[in-house]
Structures are given as C-alpha cells and as structure tokens.
Specification:
Layout (H helix, E strand, L loop, with lengths): L6 E7 L6 H12 L6 E8 L5 H11 L3 E6 L4 H11 L4 E4 L7 H10 L5 E5 L6 E2 L3 H16 L12 E4 H7 L10 H11 L4 E5 L1 E2 L9 H22 L1
Parallel strand pairs: 1-2, 1-4, 2-3, 5-8, 6-9
Antiparallel strand pairs: 4-7, 5-7
This protein binds guanosine-5'-diphosphate (GDP) and magnesium ion.
Length: 235
C-alpha cells in the first residue's frame, strides 16, 4: 500500500498580531488528530504590526512551520507565493480564522479520487451561519462563476486542497492577485481536466469579518472579467 500523502497548509496573514499565536496553537491541537505529515507555511505581507516578528518566533518554535515574507499587502499574492513554494503532495489553503482538521481528514479520505477538494458553502449539506449580507454575496459570486467563467464549481472562496502537481501545472499562469488568485487557480485546474470534489461545510465566523464587502464586490467583478479575458486570449 502506498504511504499516506503529506499536506502543506498555506495561510496568508496580515496584521494578525492579536490573533496569530492563539490560532496557530489551536491549529496544532487540531493537527494531532490528522494522521499524516502536515507542514504549515505562513505567508505574511505588508503588516504594520508585530505579525512578522511573531511569525518568525512561531517558526523557531515549530519545526514544521515556515514563514515567507513579501513586501506589499496582497492576499492573492501571498497565496500564490505559498502555493508555489509548498512541498506537500496536497497544498491546502486556509485563513488564520478559517481552518479545520476535519477538512484535512476529508482530503485524506478522498485520496486518489480527486485532484481538487473544495469546502463549498453552497454544497448540499452545508450550513452557512454567516450574516445574510455575506451569504447573498456568496450566492452572487456563485452566479458569476457559472455565467461569466462557465464554471461548474460552486464556491472558490473557502478552504481548499489542490494536488501539488496540479498547482505546478496551472499555478504559474495565474494572473490574479488580491481576492482572486485561488479562484483563478481552481478555474484553470477545472479547465485542465482536474477532478474536483466539493464537500459540505459548516461555516461559522470565528471572529467578525474584517474586509469590507462593499469594496470587495466591484474589485472582484473587475478581477473576474480580467480572468475571462485572459482565458479567452489563451484559447
Ligand atoms: N498575506 C496577506 N494576508 C492577508 C491579507 N489580507 C488578509 N489576509 C489574510 O487573509 C485571511 C482572511 O482575512 P480576513 O481579514 O479574515 O478576511 P475576511 O474574513 O474576509 O474579513 C486571514 O488569514 C488574513 O490574515 C494581505 O494583504 N496579505
Ligand atoms: Mg476572516
């Protein structure tokens, strides 16, 4: 029997000084119940608080945790750096306030049956306990994915796992940064014929959302059109 796959968990972090240490300790507690080797890559950029120093301290404390630091604040840019640097057989994207050991166990259980595993807030059986406003935004984004990008995927904005060979094949071509790196990665994987499994999830915000939806929606729509234009150009 082949050995179980290793997982790399990529977590972008920005101005998380109040939250980082507790969240990483909590994540390590969850990892005790995940029966494979897991390493963590924190990708920090543009923080103006003590986050970079705290991240370096965490790396000195945990053999399985690495830190990458980039100059300018950019969620997608950080995800890109982390995903392309990850060495696990599966590369997993978490937020510092949205992660789950159960999701990792699900990825392991799916094993060879998929190349991409998405925790979808819109999958049958999911329970989205966020505010009505956020749920409507997710519904709208789902519509945009289907109509503008002709995707069959229902949610690209949550926890996800992508096989490293798929990341290596499609990741370098991704043009999106900010909110859309992982969306474009998933869409490119889908178009390349990757097998995508969507799993239900219970979403409860561990803390109040910090990003402004009003600012994010127009930025996201512009980004989606940019992806569509680019993919058409590539044929
Ligand atoms: N590296 C990096 N991480 C970011 C940036 N903005 C947000 N993050 C991280 O992205 C994740 C989600 O951010 P959060 O503020 O919780 O977003 P919200 O839940 O949509 O309000 C967290 O792990 C943040 O630390 C950024 O500019 N750079
Ligand atoms: Mg959050």
């Amino acid at each position: 029997m082949s050995s179980p796959p290793s997982l790399s968990v990529v977590i972008p972090i920005h101005n998380e000084a109040d939250y980082l240490i507790g969240a990483v300790a909590d994540l390590y507690r969850e990892l005790e119940h995940v029966p494979v080797a897991v390493d963590i890559v924190l990708v920090e950029n543009g923080s103006t608080d003590a986050t970079p120093a705290l991240a370096v301290e965490l790396a000195s404390r945990h053999r399985t945790l690495d830190v990458l630091t980039l100059p300018d604040p950019d969620y997608g840019g950080a995800m890109r750096e982390g995903f392309l640097a990850a060495t696990g057989e599966w590369v997993v994207g978490f937020d510092i306030d949205y992660y789950s050991g159960e999701f990792l166990r699900t990825v392991i259980a799916i094993g060879d049956a998929a190349d991409v595993v998405l925790a979808s807030k819109r999958a049958p059986g999911s329970e989205d306990r966020r505010s009505l406003f956020r749920r409507i935004a997710t519904w709208g984004f789902n519509l945009v994915l289907r109509t503008v990008l002709s995707s069959g995927v229902s949610d690209t904005h949550g926890m996800k796992a992508v096989r490293r060979d798929i990341v290596a094949a499609v990741g370098p071509a991704v043009i999106s940064r900010e909110d859309l790196f992982d969306t474009e990665l998933v869409i490119r994987a889908e178009r390349a014929g990757a097998r995508i499994a969507e799993v239900p999830v219970v979403v409860e915000e561990k803390r109040q959302a910090r990003s402004s939806l009003l600012r994010r929606v127009p930025r996201t729509l512009r980004g989606v059109w940019r992806i569509r234009r680019q993919l058409r150009r590539e044929g």
